[in-house]
Amino acid sequence: MNTSMQWHERLGQSIPWGSSTCSKAPSMLPEEPAVIVKGKGCRVWDADGKEFIDYRNGLGPITLGYQHPDVDEAIRRQLESGIIFGHPHPLEAEVAELLREVIPCAEQARFLKTGGEALAAASRIARAYTGREHIVQVGYNGWLNALAGGGQALPGQPSSGRGIPGVPAALGALHHAAGWNDIAALEQWFDHIGSDIAAVIIAADYAEMEKGESYYKAVRELTSKHGALLIYDEIVTGFRIAIGGVQQYFGVKPDLAVFSKGMANGMPLSAYVGSKEVMSACDRGGTVISSTFGGETLSLAASKATIGVYKEQDVVGHLWKQGEKLWGGLNAIFASRHIPIELKGFWPCPTFTLTGGAAPAVKERFFRAAYRNGVSLYNVSYVNFSHKDADIEETLERLDRACSELEGE
């Protein structure tokens, strides 16, 4: 048993699911790395020294690349002064001001550690502001908020219609699921309980994101008509589709939004932002949302540096350009080798989809072949700012070999 597999055994003995993050637990051993011990730029290494060109990027947070010098230096500098204090640190103001500058709806901002808890905070604010209790959810909004029967228990994995295990029926009854770009479903909820709906929370469907052009406008009109708030889950789309997320890209402003994965190049940080009027619902005298670690300084220092790189360099343009080069090239390989898989969606975060009624096993065989050839992928895969032309070309060569292996099976 190699070192990586030894770690896999130890993780399974000590941690349910073998990881604290469900989506990180390997399901394609022995091809998939059991553990990762190092990342540099756009590459990662397992405990046995095998290198992978990485497109998982920590499941999304690594937007600039592993060990990006500007971000790491900012963390080191702040570490010399301290990590957390019993009063606010100036970085809280500085990063909040940066968010106000780059996010269209952000008149005010507050910080937490994860996207899921920030979405829970946004839901509480919506309920406090409107005096209503029901939430309609579109897409996956994190495990903490996966409460609606028929919603997504994990990304792309619908729950049963009976609800989520561990969620009391009374709580689940306040949460309702609707599909992406399904205005009719939303209208039905508003026809049924419109005066009780506090907010609609939307996480985009990455494969069909272009439909946001009309969908966001329609939902904005619908929520405004019924006095409900509109909340965007920008955990993936923020600092990736555009610096200010889908609200900037499509030009439709929500009342509240949550950002996380693109904020700090891997450091744990989230922000819930919105209009000053709506955010006042969590000010003094309003609903209490508070976390000791919300103002932790290493993550805020990383975020300040990360947003600085975004502003000074065309990071988003790079993600679109390199994404098109890689995923468009891979689509051409799939087509030429008659493999029924296609990357669909916007180039910074497309989704692997099956075509022609192909069985899910086809995608699993491709992912296993990609791992064998030193490319780490995920259902939604990302380029980062460290993926240069040579890395993209090498990736396509490795994935072409992977596809040739599939032809031979």
From TrEMBL:
One of its GO terms (molecular function) is pyridoxal phosphate binding. Pfam families: Aminotran_3 (PF00202). Its cofactor is pyridoxal 5'-phosphate. InterPro entries: Aminotrans_3 (IPR005814), Aminotrans_3_PPA_site (IPR049704), PyrdxlP-dep_Trfase (IPR015424), PyrdxlP-dep_Trfase_major (IPR015421), PyrdxlP-dep_Trfase_small (IPR015422). The keyword Acyltransferase does not apply. Keywords: Aminotransferase, Pyridoxal phosphate, Transferase. Gene3D superfamilies: Aspartate Aminotransferase, domain 1 (3.90.1150.10), Type I PLP-dependent aspartate aminotransferase-like (Major domain) (3.40.640.10). Belongs to the class-III pyridoxal-phosphate-dependent aminotransferase family. This is Aminotransferase class III-fold pyridoxal phosphate-dependent enzyme. It comes from Paenibacillus oceani. The lineage of its organism: Bacteria, Bacillati, Bacillota, Bacilli, Bacillales.
